[in-house]
Design brief:
The complex is a heterodimer of chains A (460) and B (192).
Chain A lengths: L8 H27 L10 H32 L6 H24 L2 H7 L17 H23 L5 H17 L9 H36 L3 H22 L12 H11 L2 H16 L8 H24 L3 H7 L3 H32 L6 H38 L6 H7 L1 H24 L12
Helix pairs in contact in A: 1-2, 1-16, 2-3, 2-5, 2-13, 3-5, 5-6, 6-7, 7-8, 7-10, 7-13, 8-9, 8-10, 10-11, 11-13, 11-14, 13-14, 14-16
Chain B lengths: L1 H9 L5 H27 L1 H8 L4 H26 L3 H31 L8 H32 L9 H26 L2
Chain lengths: 460, 192
């Protein structure tokens, strides 16, 4: 660790992993509820579990992004963080607000939560992924602005690198686009249209900038390849991500009541969205192959390469599968979407946060460039277990989705939704088993932080 | 001169990154052109009929304008290769001015169509016409911004006969913008 203020990243990473475990537990509950309808009912209804599963994902990734920013911004800017105290204060505010929100979801009916939190004053609740009470949303904005102020001040008065500028651009975009969560028009078409400005422009727009910046930072450190080379890649990747991703929003506008030209715009631009992810894969392998040093943290390199590959498969390939309007006409809102969502989030954002944690943790915890050999081995095992499990989750959901689309929408004698759900239950069972394997991988990952090796800490 | 020619044959002119960008851009337009071709095959009559409403004179004029601007950019690169920054700046200025002429002619064309009540939702042909020309329009603006950035650096003596990658980079991008129009114009305005 070069700057003592980088240590503020530590609680953020711990919280991220803790909430990750919670997210997966609720994922398992949901997976079980798919096949055992009244599992844990009425204590945890399906809609509540789903809300907790998706909201925890977003919150822990945000913790991960913030932790990553606090770790890498000082090192890139070559100065201490502007205000470590502010960073710690924001951590507790965000954690408590997040925890209270989740408790609210679980403890009282959603309508009661809306009434208690004064949703009628500024109605923003009740929309998928944006279910948070309005006061929580305001809290998120306050935390995001203070966070941006903190790292912005660090960057402005320090060394300005492309990695820092791209990261700051991405994080600013994240905060600005979230403001559309407060826009809640009565017209349902407009509501959906701007809802995607948060949801799509986050994950297929500004988050890609954050991801590329984090990946670039870690790869510079791990491989010793010239910054100029990596920066050039970064420029091209983010240009492509924005060219394809922004108008690519159109692939959500096919059937919500927007004009027909969106079917063309959305299809053409989003069909090219795999390109920036493909470039990221080529970039990561290229840079690792041209490495100028052997970094002792092998696990971090594995996470980084895995991130690039899985992001390309999950976001790129599985996104392309159903992005063209004529295909999407049949597949929208089916298990194909769920398959894509799972692998894309895992590949692009879960893995990039873990890559950053894997690189930074030995510095934060042991003041060493790498964890001991046994801990790294456990990390690598957990990588393969989680990644292979996620591949199977995706494949099973894809199988379920293909069958669902055929039986429910394509065949000459279409069957009702629930009848089809019964027919594809086998896939849901297999998905649940794959989910359990994923959870074992996650436990192994958590355990790797406590694993003691025979040899002393690795040194560079 | 020999060394210059050799330099040209050895590698792509300009920064390698701009070529990745250019290929990506060409891919986007290429997919759009293919989509146009397939849609047209299914609606030949509609496309032919709607196409008659386009202003071919304006399109042809703009083709000449862009080709001329590309020529000016070529002269700018030639000037900096002999180390003449002042002349390079003048040619770049001329190229940017021609880009401006293109935009003005195009704006009149757009205004004409909009006042005739034509929009993206009129029919599939006009959806393609407006989308393609609008995206290209935005690329002309971006190209002008890039050329302007090169111009300012050239004016402050940032390039020399030995080191002028930036000029070639800007020129390469501008030629791409020109090339796309050279396909777009016959495809959308003329062929039927």
């Amino acid at each position: 660790m070069q700057y003592s203020s980088q240590a503020v990243a530590k609680p953020y990473f711990i919280a991220a992993i803790g909430l990750f475990v919670g997210q997966i537990l609720f994922g398992l509950i949901l997976g079980a509820q798919y096949v055992i309808g009244d599992f844990l009912f009425p204590e945890i209804p399906f809609n509540v579990a789903r809300m907790v599963h998706t909201n925890l994902l977003i919150v822990w990734l945000l913790f991960g992004f913030m932790g990553a920013a606090y770790y890498l911004v000082p090192e890139e800017a070559e100065r201490e963080l502007y205000s470590p105290k502010l960073a710690i204060a924001l951590f507790w505010i965000f954690l408590v607000a997040g925890a209270l929100t989740i408790v609210g979801y679980l403890a009282v009916p959603y309508a009661t939560l809306a009434a208690v939190t004064g949703n009628d004053l500024l109605p923003t609740m009740g929309r998928e992924f944006l279910e948070q009470p309005t006061i929580t949303k305001i809290g998120i904005v306050v935390v995001a602005l203070a966070f941006l102020f903190n790292i912005g001040m660090t960057i402005i008065s320090g060394r300005k690198t492309v990695v820092n500028i791209v990261l700051l651009t991405g994080l600013t975009g994240l905060a600005v686009l979230f403001l559309f969560a407060f826009y809640n028009p009565v017209n349902l078409v407009l509501d959906k249209m701007f809802w995607w400005w948060v949801v799509h422009l986050w994950v297929e727009g500004v988050w890609e900038l954050i991801m590329a910046a984090i990946l670039a930072f870690v790869l510079i450190r791990l491989t010793g390849v010239d910054r100029e080379v990596i920066e050039k890649w970064l420029y091209v990747i983010i240009a492509m991500a924005l060219i394809t991703g922004i108008i690519g929003t159109g692939h959500h506008y096919y059937w919500i009541g927007t004009p027909e030209y969106w079917q063309w715009w959305g299809s053409i631009f989003s069909a090219l969205e795999p390109i920036p992810f493909f470039m990221m894969t080529v970039f990561a392998f290229n840079v690792v192959n041209r490495r100028r040093k052997e970094h002792p943290n092998k696990a971090a390199t594995l996470w980084a390469l895995g991130c690039a590959v899985m992001a390309f498969l999950g976001a790129g390939v599985w996104g392309f599968l159903h992005t063209l309007a004529p295909v999407n006409f049949y597949t929208h809102g089916s298990q194909i979407t769920a398959a894509h969502g799972h692998m894309a989030f895992y590949g692009a954002y879960v893995l990039v946060v873990i890559t950053m944690i894997s690189y930074a943790w030995p510095h934060l915890q042991h003041n060493a460039p790498a964890a001991n050999g046994r801990a790294q081995l456990l990390e690598m095992w957990s990588f393969w277990l989680m990644t292979i499990s996620m591949v199977f989750i995706t494949l099973f959901l894809t199988g379920a989705g293909i069958l669902q689309v055929y039986l429910q929408r394509v065949s000459d004698t279409p069957l009702p939704f629930m009848v089809v759900q019964d027919k594809i239950a086998l896939f849901y069972w297999m998905r649940l088993y794959a989910g359990l394997a994923f959870f074992i991988g996650l436990c192994l990952y958590v355990y790797s932080f406590f694993a003691k090796g025979k040899e002393s800490l690795a040194s560079s | 001169m020999d060394t210059l020619a050799q330099h040209d044959n050895d590698s792509l002119p300009g920064d390698f990154a701009i070529w990745i960008f250019i290929f990506a851009e060409l891919l986007v337009f290429g997919v759009f052109f293919l989509a146009y071709a397939f849609s047209r095959a299914n609606n030949v009559e509609l496309f032919n009929e709607s196409q008659m409403q386009l202003d071919r004179i304006a399109g042809a004029a703009n083709t000449l304008v862009l080709i001329t601007s590309s020529y000016f950019v070529v002269r700018a690169v030639a000037a900096i290769r002999t180390g003449n920054s002042t002349r390079c700046v003048h040619w770049l200025l001329a190229a940017i001015a021609m880009g401006g002429v293109f935009l003005v002619i195009k704006l009149f064309e757009f205004g004409d169509k909009f006042s005739a009540g034509i929009s993206l939702s009129t029919n599939t042909f006009f959806m393609f016409y407006l989308s393609l020309t609008f995206f290209h329009f935005m690329h002309v603006i971006l190209g002008m911004v890039i050329l302007a950035a090169v111009l300012f650096k050239a004016r402050s003596g940032g390039y020399s006969a030995q080191e002028h990658t930036g000029v070639e980079t800007g020129a390469s991008y501008w030629h791409m913008v020109d090339l796309v129009w050279l396909i777009l114009f016959p495809l959308v305005y003329v062929i039927h």
